[in-house]
Amino acid sequence: MQKMTSVITNFGVSDELQGIFYSLREMPSLNNSEQKKFKKHEIDSLSQNIVCRNYGKLCLELSYLCFAIINYQVPKKNENTRRFSPLLSYFWQNTFLSQAHVKNYFQNKFNNSECEVFITDNVLRIGLKSTQFDISISRVGLLAALLEFIVYIDPKLINEFELSLVAADVAKIKEITSHIQKKIYQFLTLHLSSAQEQRRFRFMASFLDNIATKESKLNSTSWLTDEYILNFWLKASDEGNNLGFKLFSSCFFELVSFHHALSVSHSKINARSSLSIGENIEAGEVSADLLEQTLVQLQQNKLEIDWLNEKPKFLTKNQTLTLKPIIECLPFSKKLALTVTRVHVFGAWQATIVQAARKKDNQLITQKLNQFPKNNYHSFYALIINNYQQVIDTLWALLHINHYHQQAQMFTLFNQLVTDKKLLKGLHVLLAQHVNKTKVNNINVLFNEMMKWQLKLPELNKTFKHANRIFNANNKTGFNVLPQLQELDIYHEGQDLLLILKQELNHFISHLEIVLSEQSQQANPKDENFRSDTSIFFNKLNSLYGVNDE
Fold this sequence. Notes:
The protein is mainly α. It contains 23 helices and 4 strands.
């Protein structure tokens, strides 16, 4: 399936529901009118869960979070937060949504005879007698967005929370959760249809039944290949009537997600005797409905990189657009490097033809059909290498920011970016000596000591100067001046994501080099493989959009 934000825009979602998601994206922060209350990826994640009707776990997490807020006794020094009802104070009057704010709010462990609430290892832990429930503090913003969504559905639910969750037990929390789910379900029956997506799953399932054996459907190394994706598009673009399979890029993302959903579905039924796909559940068949329900579990694990081109601008919009196909098909991007390349080269070509077709200009359609892609596979490789270097440069700029503000995250970047093994070894020796000598685990003392080490290790001084030069050369928003200390949370989140992106791109580039190397050995100097693919795509695009002479 395509990325859920695209599905929301195109399939079965009412204007009212789309308007709610838009309002949540644009909702300003009460503390800073220039900032949004929620991060983009939080609303994207919420919309994925709502549209896929996979909000059960979220509702349970929200119930436990509200229970913790309502029953947690705020220390006296923060007593002013109780001027309003606990939920109103937490989510609206003070908006304790960032990880730092959550830690600060629950900084003291609270417990009584009925429950205990405390922070441990970036997890909010709620204990109720024999039951323990953990919520990652990184999800509080997402849960707050869900609560805001619930307010749109039925504002009276807030009062019900306040009354019902005081000293509630596990059974009561589950009852509240079921009540929330019921309200959301009733709302979605009027605003959301999933029939189209189920039809798409059934079509892909039927195609796979005709191609692969039952055993190979579960094997990610068997059927999901570059060849399978190309063949599916060549056939499905004609046969998949009104299912949205005309775009090569759509087929790619749909098949990757279908494979994910299929694997999870079979895992859920514990590899029952029959592995066919259909409607006879008792016979062991997997329904398209079940595929849709389980898809979001894997969608949540995908990296969201769109927010990297906001403020601060870690990457440009064009860079995130280029890298998105690689990220959205993880963990298959390395194996499907050729398809990712085809998406960039021929998917872009098809997009220009589609635009011409929408204008119903036959002359323009013919013109776009005959304008073959100017960039070949090696051009795409060069583009990815350039974007990879941009990721590296941004990480160097972040190293400078962390060094300036004496942040421990600098050491993670140092180990990831510095390739001088002698320098790394020397620094580790000095760190060990300092710790053994002082027995003090104070980051500020450590950074003060490092100023002396720069004299002992000239390469260390050169490294910091290099990071400084990279930062000064970065004129993107959020990097043209050093951020304030209180602004660093978003920079640290971006750093974590860029480090993952760096690793995934490194793997992808290595595999793409192998693919291009193999093609070079098989092809003549004129890049016969690329010419062959161009011919295949031209013939297909001509059959889909070509203008008859009649």
